[in-house]
């Protein structure tokens, strides 16, 4: 079991696709399969369930993913401490955020950091912001950008970087909500309003709380992953949705939707960085976390 084997395992655990992983890691599919099989033999348990159509992590695979990530970070820290120029930080830092966050925050966050630490490589993953905390907890990412939940999970720390309102949106082409529905949302007046909601996350939690407050049982047209997808479906006229204002500020479809000032407004988002508290002692994570003080 060596560093390369662990790197291949983590890449496959991320992609869940042998062909894609072999291309990205510049290794043949057969060599990748042999490496994973050798790991499974060493561990004494299957790490992946695979058939002709899918690859998934087993329970043992999820446990091993954390071990592999911790081991490679420890190896990088050891190599860093043994360098003659050990005051220069080197290594790889993984960062997760939504596409919108990459537009809105990454330049300012990374510009100064890269100037001070040019030898740290940033590995960027994008996806649903609702997954930010989960990916940090599972050690799949070193740092993630997302919205702060109402209560932070134990061991997770948060550093705010921005605040964004949550807005009700509808298609520009049709008037999805009347003035009466905006002023007096009730079960009866919203009975036939199609809604496009996030599958999970803070926006889903807050819109459900708002709906319960008004006694509304929503007519859900679709549940989707990612705020950008909500804007797209709303712009096509499929229903109304709820997204952070920052998504609208960066959306190419902003001119095709309208916003509704519904009272009371939803509680705004606090957007920021997530990390595991115990990992703030690691030089690379600490340098990124304290980038603004450099």
Task: Walk me through the topology.
Elements (H helix, E strand, L loop, with lengths): L2 H13 L2 H7 L4 H15 L4 E3 L4 E3 L1 H24 L8 E7 L1 H6 L1 H11 L3 E7 L5 H6 L5 E5 L8 E9 L1 E6 L7 H5 L10 E5 L3 H12 L5 E6 L2 H9 L4 E5 H6 L6 E4 L8 E8 L6 H7 L5
Helix pairs in contact: 1-3, 1-4
Detailed description of the structure:
The chain has 3 domains: 1-73, Winged helix-like DNA-binding domain superfamily/Winged helix DNA-binding domain (Arc Repressor Mutant, subunit A, Orthogonal Bundle), CATH 1.10.10; 88-162 and 270-294, Periplasmic binding protein-like II (D-Maltodextrin-Binding Protein, domain 2), CATH 3.40.190.10; 166-267, 3-Layer(aba) Sandwich (D-Maltodextrin-Binding Protein, domain 2), CATH 3.40.190.10. It has 12 helices and 12 strands. The protein has helices at 3-15, 18-24, 29-43, 59-82, 99-104, 106-116, 132-137, 179-183, 202-213, 227-235, 245-250, 283-289, and strands at 48-50, 55-57, 91-97, 120-126, 143-147, 156-164, 166-171, 194-198, 219-224, 240-244, 257-260, 269-276. The strands form 3 sheets. The protein has a 5-stranded mixed beta sheet. Strand 8, helix 9 (202-213) and strand 9 form a beta-alpha-beta unit.
């Amino acid at each position: 079991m060596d560093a390369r084997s662990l790197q291949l395992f983590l890449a496959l655990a991320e992609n869940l696709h042998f062909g894609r992983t072999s291309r990205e890691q510049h290794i043949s599919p057969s060599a990748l399969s042999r490496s994973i099989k050798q790991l499974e033999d060493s561990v004494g348990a299957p790490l992946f369930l695979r058939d002709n159509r899918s690859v998934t992590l087993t329970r043992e695979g999820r446990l091993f993913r954390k071990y592999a990530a911790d081991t490679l970070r420890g190896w990088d820290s050891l190599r860093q401490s043994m360098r003659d120029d050990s005051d220069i930080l080197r290594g790889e830092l993984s960062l997760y955020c939504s596409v919108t966050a990459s537009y809105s925050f990454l330049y300012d966050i990374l510009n100064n950091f890269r100037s001070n630490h040019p030898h740290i490589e940033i590995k960027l993953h994008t996806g649903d912001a609702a997954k930010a905390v989960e990916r940090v907890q599972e050690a799949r990412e070193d740092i993630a950008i997302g919205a702060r939940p109402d209560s932070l999970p134990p061991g997770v720390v948060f550093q705010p970087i921005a605040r964004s309102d949550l807005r009700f949106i509808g298609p520009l082409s049709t008037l999805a909500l009347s003035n009466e529905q905006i002023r007096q949302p009730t079960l009866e007046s919203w009975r036939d309003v199609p809604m496009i909601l996030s599958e999970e996350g803070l926006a889903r939690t807050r819109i459900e709380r708002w709906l319960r407050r008004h006694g509304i049982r929503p007519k859900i047209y679709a549940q989707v992953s990612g705020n950008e997808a909500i804007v797209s479906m709303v712009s096509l006229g499929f229903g109304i949705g709820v997204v952070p204002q920052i998504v609208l500020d960066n959306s190419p479809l902003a001119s095709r939707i309208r916003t509704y000032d519904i009272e009371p407004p939803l509680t705004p988002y606090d957007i920021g960085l997530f990390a595991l508290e115990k990992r703030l002692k690691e030089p690379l994570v600490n340098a990124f976390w304290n980038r603004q003080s450099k």
